[in-house]
Design brief:
Blueprint lengths: L1 E6 L5 E5 L4 H10 L6 E5 L5 H12 L3 E5 L4 E5 L10 H4 L9 H8 L1 E5 L12 H9 L3 E5 L2 E5 L7 E3 L5 H11 L5 E5 L5 H12 L3 E3 L5 E5 L8 E3 L4 H13 L3 E5 L7 H10 L2 E5 L2 E5 L10 E2 L11 H8 L6 E4 L8 H8 L5 E3 L2 E4 L10 E3 L3 H13 L3 E5 L2 H6 L3 H7 L3 E6 L1
Parallel strand pairs: 2-14, 3-13, 9-10, 17-18, 21-22
Antiparallel strand pairs: 1-22, 1-23, 3-5, 4-5, 6-8, 7-8, 10-12, 11-12, 14-16, 15-16, 18-20, 19-20
Bound molecules: ligand EPZ.
């Protein structure tokens, strides 16, 4: 198994270019199932999860061309005629569930293995099922398989008990070609939802309100092919912002949208980092003030993103003063705390609350395990400032979510290399 070897690196300096957003590209690629036309998606990050989604689309009958020099994926959906998603692909990636709504809308049925839970929680799909049933589909979940069928999808009012990102996306895609109008209430407001809605509207959908808690979708007869450029990845942006802060460095982050990372900007400023808008991007400086503690509480957008909780916790273990981290989105997203503790961090976890008393001692390099992609990134950040060497194993998680991670970090002066065991 591959692992990262991370040495104490000192302050990071230089500039980094943010890639397209994984969590926007995945539902947008799934949405190409909705049309028999040709779609060209640009700014797609080259990641293992994207590769799995392309393989899923091919298994359904689509023609998929990947051009990684251009970061473009072109999908010709005219040949889509398979309604069952292969189990061996679904088990590789939870986001496979995003094709359920489009398949149901395109072919009238969808069969997909229930995506497994993962380290951070059991991640049910009850809200996806509830939404599609409300649109008139029959959805049965048995023995780990999800069977959905609908002679016709009819617009309806769907209330989401929790603003689930995936459920909002699946329902929005199915509703785009349902008969009549659908209103999703208590919808997720993430920028990736807005990006998906703008792609669907380019395909001829009539969606309003994406980015708010109420999305109105007027069903149309048919969607046509379209071209779209995916938004920059706000979690990759936040990760490199924290990398600049934790190493007390000075990094210019290019091709990012500061508006998508307002909570991370606010919290880094509370810690004493200096963030400046420049012509070419956003500059993050951890080298001006002594960094101090703050508290974070994860919430659905526009709250502090759960995907930034682990990287930010790594930072908080290196500042003076006590911090509290509250994780409200996933039920088990503190596994990185025990890994950081192996590096000398002093973190007390009690349910959804992690307490980090101000540590005086610096972190020590250790052998640690990446339990999910954001935890892996957090452990690398900790390794950059720990004394000695840190070995991060199970890094396939990280490779799933961060394009050219080692290369981008190394260009900033990080001493990190990938080694095969
Ligand atoms: C998306 O996952 C992201 N993944 C996650 O990013 C991100 O952490 C999450 O949204 C929250 O922002 C992709 O977009 C591919 P949810 P998703 O449905 O859609 C519960 C990463 O690091 N829930 O908003 O699965 C669920 O258990 C990944 O890139 C239900 O109860 O997230 C969780 O507690 C990790 N029933 C909460 O809602 C449902 O039917 C949020 O889940 C669906 C979700």
């Amino acid at each position: 198994m591959a692992k990262y070897i991370v040495e104490n690196s000192g302050p990071l300096y230089g500039e980094v270019e943010i890639s397209g957003a994984k969590n926007a590209a995945l539902p947008i690629l799934a949405a190409t199932v909705l049309t028999d036309g040709v779609c060209e998606i640009n700014e797609v990050p080259r990641l293992k999860d994207i590769d799995v989604m392309c393989r899923i689309l091919r298994s359904l009958g689509a023609k998929v061309e990947e051009n990684w020099d251009e970061h473009t994926v072109t999908v010709d959906g005219s040949g889509i005629n398979v309604s069952e998603v292969p189990y061996d692909l679904v088990k590789l990636m939870r986001a496979s569930i995003f094709v359920m709504g489009p398949l149901l809308a395109r072919l009238g049925k969808a069969t997909i293995a229930q995506p497994g839970g993962c380290a951070i929680g059991n991640r049910p799909i009850d809200l996806h099922a509830k939404g599609l049933r409300t649109l008139g589909a029959r959805v049965m979940i048995s023995e780990g398989m999800v069977y959905a069928a609908a002679d016709k999808l009819t617009g309806a009012l769907v209330y989401l008990d929790f603003p689930s990102v995936g459920a909002t996306e699946n329902i929005m895609m199915a509703a785009a070609v349902a008969e009549g109008t659908t209103i999703i209430e208590n919808a997720a407001e993430e920028p990736e939802i807005v990006d998906l809605a703008s792609f669907l509207n380019r395909m001829g959908a009539k969606i309003k309100g994406a980015g708010t808690d109420t999305i109105r979708i007027e069903g149309v007869e048919k969607l046509h092919g379209a071209r779209h450029a995916v938004i920059p990845d706000r979690i990759e942006t936040g990760t490199f912002m924290v990398a600049a802060a934790i190493t007390r460095g000075n990094v210019l982050i290019k091709n990012c949208l500061p508006d998508h990372v307002r909570p991370v900007i606010a919290k880094l400023i509370e810690c004493g980092a200096v963030i400046q808008d420049e012509m070419e991007g956003m500059r993050v400086r951890g080298d001006i003030n002594r960094l101090v503690a703050t508290d974070i509480k994860t919430l659905p957008y526009p709250g502090f993103p759960t995907d930034m909780q682990a990287p930010f916790m790594a930072l908080l273990t290196t500042v003076s003063g006590s911090s509290t981290v509250i994780e409200t989105v996933f039920e088990n997203r503190f596994m990185h705390a025990q890994e950081l503790s192996k590096m000398g961090a002093n973190i007390r976890v009690d349910g959804r609350v992690a307490s980090i008393p101000g540590d005086k001692c610096p972190l020590e390099g250790a052998q640690v395990v990446s339990t999910d992609l954001r935890a892996g990134a957090a452990l690398v950040l900790a390794g950059l400032v720990a004394k000695g060497t840190t070995e991060v194993s199970q890094i396939y998680h990280v490779e799933r979510g961060y394009e050219n991670f080692v290369e981008k970090m190394s260009k900033l002066g990080a001493k990190i290399r990938l080694v095969e065991d």
